[in-house]
Amino acid sequence: MRKIALVAAASAAALALAACSEKTEDAAEATADSMAADAEANADAAGDAMEATGDAVAETAEDAADKVEEATDSMTEEAPAE
Fold this sequence. Notes:
The chain is mainly α.
């Protein structure tokens, strides 16, 4: 009789684990999908930030080049004629 109760308890536990396993698998799949969506959104945001930074650096470099050109022109105009 004891063996029958033990087998019945083990069977019940196995069924519970099987059901739990399916739910766990579904939850894991949902988590993986969510993580992939988050990673994609973060990659897009990082790309946008890098593009904006590149644009700002280019603009700053152009401004600096213009100022150097203006300073050079000013110095050339102010230099005494020989």
